[in-house]
């Protein structure tokens, strides 16, 4: 009678399956890609500071000193207070792993299939990457929320009207310590679209990118010099843009998805934010298109507190359990909201 190898009892008892050692498949993470930790929070890309929070300077008024004059015109010099300071408080995040020493002793060669020390550290840092992704694309619920960092929706606020209309996020009377009501230019660009089409979303996207690209007429010690845009959206928008891209090309060959992963806006890749589609319970249904200018939107860490690891040490209540923590003290800040935009449906 025919049978499978698993049905032969002596074979199963006396023979091991082929073992794949030292590696494992990770199916825990829900987000297909991560923008914050692997791309934005790289050490060479962040700002470092000190003090009990981060402060930045913004010129919000002009002295209006320039004028046309006649010969021998009487001088009328004036002075004015032109600068204000914005600020953000520090926020803190941590992750950790813990293992019982006797478990480590058992998890040794030749019996070891996978290093529990390695998997524990990877698990801890993956959790931190997931947290940072939600921190970056999230915002405090109100000014009384002293735990959440000031992510993208805090600084780049939606509005259904086209123009510099991004005001205060819900639950706040200012943004970074500055009131948009008082300083009308302290606002990001906004627009609402109906469909992802060239004559709708793309047209408004082009206008947003043009009108948020400021170029100072004179040299100065500007903290908002330059334009370094990144464009971010959900799959509904990205998938439609890929189809638009295909419709522009008459020579696609045999590839039915030839333009997947190739969408660009002004020669800058458009990135899919899987968090927009996977954030269970608070999925953004407005199909946002964010234009973030990395010359003015920056992560900041307290000096010495960038992914700082503690020494591996015994747990205070379990003498045979060792632990290690990784800590961050940080926040996100924007020195010029006008150089950023969000389109929404």
Topology at a glance:
Elements: H1 9-14, H2 36-40, E1 47-49, E2 53-59, E3 83-89, E4 91-100, H3 101-106, H4 116-136, H5 152-155, E5 163-166, E6 188-192, H6 201-211, E7 229-233, H7 235-247, E8 264-265, E9 268-272, H8 274-278, E10 289-293, E11 297-302, E12 308-309, E13 313-315, E14 318-334, E15 341-344
What is the string of helix and strand elements?
HHEEEEHHHEEHEHEEHEEEEEE
Q: What count of helical segments does DSSP give?
A: 8
Q: How far apart lie the N and C ends?
A: 65 Å
Question: Any idea what the radius of gyration is?
Answer: 27 Å
Which structural class fits the helix and strand makeup? alpha+beta
Biggest β-sheet: strands ordered side by side in the sheet: 5-6-15-10-7-9-8
Q: Give the overall pLDDT as a whole number.
A: 85
Task: Report the portion of residues in β strands.
Answer: 15-25%
Shape designation: globular
Q: Low-confidence spans: pLDDT under 50, at least 5 residues?
A: none
What's the main sheet like? 7 strands, mixed
* Helix content percent band: 10-25%
Strands, count: 15
What does this structure look like?
The longest helix is centred in the middle third of the chain and has 21 residues, at 116-136. The strands form 3 sheets. The protein has a 7-stranded mixed beta sheet with strand order 5-6-15-10-7-9-8. Strands 1, 4, 11, 12, 13 and 14 form a 6-stranded mixed beta sheet that branches. It contains 8 helices and 15 strands. β8 and β9 (268-272) form a beta hairpin. The termini are far apart. It has 345 residues and is α+β, with helices and mostly antiparallel strands.
């Amino acid at each position: 009678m025919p049978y499978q190898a698993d049905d032969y009892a002596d074979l199963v008892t006396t023979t091991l399956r082929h073992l794949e050692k030292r590696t494992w498949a990770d199916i825990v993470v829900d987000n297909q890609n991560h923008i914050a930790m692997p791309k934005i929070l790289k050490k060479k890309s962040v700002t470092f500071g000190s003090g009990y929070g981060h402060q930045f300077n913004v010129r919000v008024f002009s002295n209006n000193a320039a004028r046309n004059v006649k010969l021998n015109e009487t001088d009328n010099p004036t002075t004015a207070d032109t600068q204000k300071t914005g600020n953000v408080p520090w926020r803190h995040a941590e992750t950790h792993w813990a293992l019982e020493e006797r478990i480590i002793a058992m998890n040794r060669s030749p019996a070891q299939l996978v290093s529990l020390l390695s998997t524990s550290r990877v698990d801890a840092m993956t959790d931190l990457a997931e947290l940072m992704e939600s921190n970056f694309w999230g915002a405090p619920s109100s000014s009384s929320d002293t735990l959440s960092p000031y992510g993208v929706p805090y600084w780049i606020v939606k509005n259904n009207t086209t123009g510099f209309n991004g005001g205060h996020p819900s639950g706040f009377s200012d943004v970074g310590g500055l009131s948009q009501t008082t300083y009308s230019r302290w606002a990001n660009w906004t627009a609402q679209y109906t469909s992802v089409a060239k004559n709708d979303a793309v047209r408004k996207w082009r206008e947003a990118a043009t009108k948020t690209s400021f170029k100072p007429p004179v040299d100065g010690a500007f903290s908002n010099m330059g334009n370094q845009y990144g464009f971010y959206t959900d799959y509904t928008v990205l998938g439609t843009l890929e189809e638009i891209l295909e419709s522009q090309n008459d020579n696609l060959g045999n590839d039915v998805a030839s333009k997947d992963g190739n969408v660009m806006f002004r020669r800058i890749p458009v990135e899919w934010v899987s968090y927009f589609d996977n954030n269970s319970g608070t999925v953004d249904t407005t199909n946002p298109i964010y234009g973030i200018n990395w010359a003015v939107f920056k992560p900041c860490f307290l000096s010495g507190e960038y992914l700082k690891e503690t020494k591996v040490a015994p747990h205070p209540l379990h003498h045979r359990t060792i632990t290690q923590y990784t800590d961050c003290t940080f926040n996100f800040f924007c020195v010029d909201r006008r150089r950023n935009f969000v389109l929404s449906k």
